[in-house]
Amino acid sequence: MSMKLSALARELGLDYTGADIDIAGVNTLDKACPDELSFLVNPKYLSQMEKTKAGCVLTSGPYADKVPNALVSDNVYMDLAKVVDLFAKPQGCLSGVSELAYIHPDAQLDETVTVYPFAFVGAEAVIGAGTTIFAGAYIGEGTTIGTQCIVYPNAVVMGGLSIGNNVIVHPGAVLGGDGYGYAQTPVGHRKIPQIGTVQIADNVEIGSNTTIDRAALDTTSIKQGTKIDNLVQVGHNVEIGEHCLVIGQTGIGGSTVIGNGVVLAGQVGVPDNIKIGDGAIIGAKSGVSGDVAPGVTLLGAPAMPAKQYMRAAGVCLPKLPDLFKRVKKLEKELAAVKAEAASGEDDE
Amino acid sequence: MSMKLSALARELGLDYTGADIDIAGVNTLDKACPDELSFLVNPKYLSQMEKTKAGCVLTSGPYADKVPNALVSDNVYMDLAKVVDLFAKPQGCLSGVSELAYIHPDAQLDETVTVYPFAFVGAEAVIGAGTTIFAGAYIGEGTTIGTQCIVYPNAVVMGGLSIGNNVIVHPGAVLGGDGYGYAQTPVGHRKIPQIGTVQIADNVEIGSNTTIDRAALDTTSIKQGTKIDNLVQVGHNVEIGEHCLVIGQTGIGGSTVIGNGVVLAGQVGVPDNIKIGDGAIIGAKSGVSGDVAPGVTLLGAPAMPAKQYMRAAGVCLPKLPDLFKRVKKLEKELAAVKAEAASGEDDE
Amino acid sequence: MSMKLSALARELGLDYTGADIDIAGVNTLDKACPDELSFLVNPKYLSQMEKTKAGCVLTSGPYADKVPNALVSDNVYMDLAKVVDLFAKPQGCLSGVSELAYIHPDAQLDETVTVYPFAFVGAEAVIGAGTTIFAGAYIGEGTTIGTQCIVYPNAVVMGGLSIGNNVIVHPGAVLGGDGYGYAQTPVGHRKIPQIGTVQIADNVEIGSNTTIDRAALDTTSIKQGTKIDNLVQVGHNVEIGEHCLVIGQTGIGGSTVIGNGVVLAGQVGVPDNIKIGDGAIIGAKSGVSGDVAPGVTLLGAPAMPAKQYMRAAGVCLPKLPDLFKRVKKLEKELAAVKAEAASGEDDE
């Protein structure tokens, strides 16, 4: 597939500079060919743009005159997303319901649903229009999946769950496994059966091999537009608000409530039973230790305001051994001063 | 299903207060309906209990008179587990061995075993009474699984392993993948084949997408009653004692030996070749750096006694930049005092 | 199977001491029987060697005379790998292409390929000689897999990827899931379709439930001989050099470039868009905060030279509360000295 730059510009509602060339794909500045479009956001890569063979570069006004052909945008990432959409080929090579899938006779599938071989759809599961269930995926009994969803290979959506529209569940993700709940008894840990559910709202994305536990009772809830990266753990009864970003290998303890627009960077740890306010940002590898106010940026373990952590742990901590020496020297010197003074007094 | 409160109380050996209502389910204080039972452990939620619509609240003596109908318990969590058991419906919608499963002709399955479509059971695998193997699960050749186990969808139990009774393997967990063992050679890392096994004792639970490596030689061993959460990594030749709690995203290096009743909180890192004594507790996100004595509570990376860490990293570290200023001021002032003294001496 | 010690020694090009016994297997010093070979590298285990029942011990010259029968090696781990290879039985119990697998008619499989039941091979996938695809594994359309590879159960290799020769993909690993890329818009995070690929070079090993994202555009690349442990996250467009060791639960942010021979220990966090030089070693649980020079050893979060971190965080941090007390005492004493001096001056 290829299209004229003029047609592309029209499609996106953007202006372009230079010749009306044919565009056949999208690539990085470094790798793009003359019939491909590339993009520049970060001026750090200006030198790459100057050397690129890309036929056209999608960029913002200030950089547009650095290349012969530019597509000029105020939100390069958003327009890049739109361009890539035009050229992207979705994963997969089959359509319709495979005869090699298992569909329980009491399941209800819209006629536009695709189910790959070896996928399992349990009793009374309901799957909406345009949704694709890849090979080896498991949809438990009574689970409802909305329209235009993708459940990638070997993802597991246990029974009794509710998944919205336009949800993407990446390969190997597990939704609705049991929460981690035990009663302590004199003879060991007794399992508290986890009979709650998981609700995933519209436009949520769940990364590869991420695990989202079902509630003990009630609901674990991920609200609309939230994007969860790979290998993230979400405990039972957690509630994550709208449009959050939860980045790789983060773990969230049970019953914690997270507001809207929160960012949890990679490998963050959030304990049980706390609240994180709207718009808070928790830096990578942080260990949150209690409620977090809206809008703050925290870092460290235990987490503190990010600037404070960078000063304390980034700047001061490495110099701490030296500080011990300085204090020891002060102690010696002060003792000497005092001894001197005392001997002076004695002299008197 | 529903049952009289009096019957429920009799079943659990507990007393109740108030009317002998019908109970049809269990829910949170916040969500329970008048025909549901709820529970209270933490007095933090007393205000919710006062507003609950639950027909009955399972709680301990001191709080029982706050609601019209209470079920009075000395171990609320344990009795909650028992109540939920009564109302819980296990996951799954099939029974018996599916014709769509692959069962090797040399495998031995008890006649009460359930195997879902697309599960794989290898040669000479042995599966005990009442065990359920969900869709897409893999049971390797020669592996023995006891009675009343559940292997959830897409879990992988490689060949030659030994799994006890009442073991639960959550979706996507991998038992018996190769340990990480290489010989350094001038031309790169040469794989040391991992020919040992994994032994999982009775009443162990393995979380979703958790990985437990087979031993290089010999055995990786998880002893009875230990509960492992999601996304945990257990290295080759590790031994974990009885009744431990290993919480989400913890990693345990090869050949480490962990005692009984140990708690490893979330995202803990434990290195290779160390010993952790019985009853030790390692706080969330800690990085253990050497052997751990029985019964201690550690925190931090490198881990130290938890109170010490909270004082050092929680209280003092944020004030460290200020301490540097104070020391600098002391140095200046002391220099001034010494200069003054010296000039005084000069004066003399 | 069993073989004469003399034959074993000849096979490995090593000398042996003692009688020419039969060797039937390999085991630990602790567990080995008289017809098994064991090994000793670390002198810490000398006392175990003195008590071992092993028929023969593979060890280096200095320890060879501690047992009646020794196989003497200059690189015990490498020779252990070779011995274990002789006795190891690979996982699996089938060969050939199962009729219960799904092979797209346009896929190309070498005639020596093994495909287990319920594996899925997409359109135009190409699989080389001697490669085994276990049950439940997914090979996407257009993906090329080289010779002598193993794709273990329920591993997912999405479409359009390129996998070299002698590559091992452990159970549940996900290669080529979407990278985490969104454009910020006033109405939420808009997905940037991830249309790049993943290239895995020869002799690479990918651990259980590890996730390697496809590039946004272009390629995520793992170069030859690199060994990746379990539950590791590799972001989109990352490049990892040759012969690296990436240990359990490490996470690597998008577009980061890692040199050759780098070691990332367990639970390390590496951010987006940085470079790590050849031969660098990043200690367990570290959080790298910027480019890393070749050959350095870093530790901590933010990471600093390992010795400095051990002094600062391991030695000094626990004593920090005490340091605060010492400084407070100094301040008081100095104030007293100054007051004294001042009163002395007043006296004058």
From TrEMBL, chains A, B, C:
Which PROSITE patterns does the UniProt entry name for this protein?
HEXAPEP_TRANSFERASES
Q: Tell me if Lipid metabolism is a UniProt keyword of this record.
A: yes
List of catalytic residues: H236
Keywords per UniProt: Acyltransferase, Coiled coil, Lipid A biosynthesis, Lipid biosynthesis, Lipid metabolism, Repeat, Transferase
Return the EC number.
2.3.1.191
As recorded in UniProt, coiled-coil segments are 320-347
Q: Which InterPro entries match?
A: Hexapep (IPR001451), Hexapep_transf_CS (IPR018357), LpxD (IPR007691), Trimer_LpxA-like_sf (IPR011004), UDP_GlcNAc_AcTrfase_non-rep (IPR020573)
**Reaction equations catalysed:** a UDP-3-O-[(3R)-3-hydroxyacyl]-alpha-D-glucosamine + a (3R)-hydroxyacyl-[ACP] = a UDP-2-N,3-O-bis[(3R)-3-hydroxyacyl]-alpha-D-glucosamine + holo-[ACP] + H(+)
Matching entries from Pfam families are given as:
Hexapep (PF00132), LpxD (PF04613)
Q: Domain UDP-3-O-[3-hydroxymyristoyl] glucosamine N-acyltransferase non-repeat region: where?
A: 20-85
Signal peptide boundaries: none
Q: In its keyword annotation, does this UniProt entry include Ribonucleoprotein?
A: no
Q: In which pathway does it act?
A: Bacterial outer membrane biogenesis; LPS lipid A biosynthesis
Q: Which PANTHER family match?
A: UDP-3-O-ACYLGLUCOSAMINE N-ACYLTRANSFERASE, UDP-3-O-ACYLGLUCOSAMINE N-ACYLTRANSFERASE 1, MITOCHONDRIAL-RELATED
Q: What does this protein do?
A: Catalyzes the N-acylation of UDP-3-O-acylglucosamine using 3-hydroxyacyl-ACP as the acyl donor. Is involved in the biosynthesis of lipid A, a phosphorylated glycolipid that anchors the lipopolysaccharide to the outer membrane of the cell.
The text of the family note is: Belongs to the transferase hexapeptide repeat family. LpxD subfamily.
Q: How does it assemble?
A: Homotrimer.
| Protein's UniProt name | UDP-3-O-acylglucosamine N-acyltransferase
Q: Which organism is it from?
A: Pseudodesulfovibrio sediminis
